[in-house]
Design a protein that fits this description.
about 300 residues; alpha+beta; OB fold (Dihydrolipoamide Acetyltransferase, E2P); five-stranded antiparallel beta sheet; five-stranded mixed beta barrel; 12 strands; structural constituent of ribosome; mRNA binding; NA-bd_OB-fold; S1_domain
Amino acid sequence: MNHSILLTLLVLIHATSSFLFTPQVHTSSSCTSLTVKISKESEEESRSPDAWAGSNPKLRTAIVRNRQNRARARQNKQKREPKTTRKRRLLFLHKETTVKKKRDLRVTRTVPLEERAMLKDVKLGSTLNGQVISVVNFGAFIDVGCEKDVLLHVKDMSEEFISHPSTLVSPGDTISVYVKYSQDGKVGLSLLENSIQEEVDEDVIQVEDLDEGDELWGVVLRSTNFGFFISVGTSQPAFLHFMDHSDFPVMEGTHPKDYGMEGEKVRVWVKEVDVEKGRVKVQGNRPDDLPRLGWE
């Protein structure tokens, strides 16, 4: 009797468990298959050009409203952005745009290095054919076949006001320039006739017109324990740290005064600009992100 009762209970338990759990498995699998089916249909509709037009109008309205809300949220986030963060972000975008423009430029010099003349031999009042190497806010650097490029200041480009030198010249252009002064290796150029000057009146470069990566020529005025002060045409001399000197890997461990640079003419590139203090830091190595100048 006991055995029959036990057997009956086991049969009932087995039947009950089958009844309770089996439908749940089928329901789960059917839901999974339904979800996969819906996702596949959504993919096919999104790929179809008529998917948007054929979708539910309420769904389209909800999608558009969601996009508008996201755009409004981004705008509000930028409005709440701290001034320092905003300034840093805009400065980064400006530098990124400037570097991209310079990277896209490439100029090939037509006169070999060994055939170039000395600037001190340039005659006052002569006309030279030059090639525009780079355009900056305060003018353009012109290759006139000499040992270094010469600055054509923006005020010597036209008698009328121009917003930026790039409105008249571009890198790679070949132009005719007049030598308005030439004294002790310092040469001034002009696009205007009858602009000869008997005395040197050097053009002062405004610090706010300088950008990172701009090429400058200057004369080393003096050396300190940390580097060199160089006259580059700005109201205050630019500073070249000894670690930014092109010979630093070779001269490492040598005091800057032992470089023997005072009075030398050097070519440098702008590294940092502090407009508020009017200070400029330069480096002796050409920045890697600038286009290379080839020689034919």
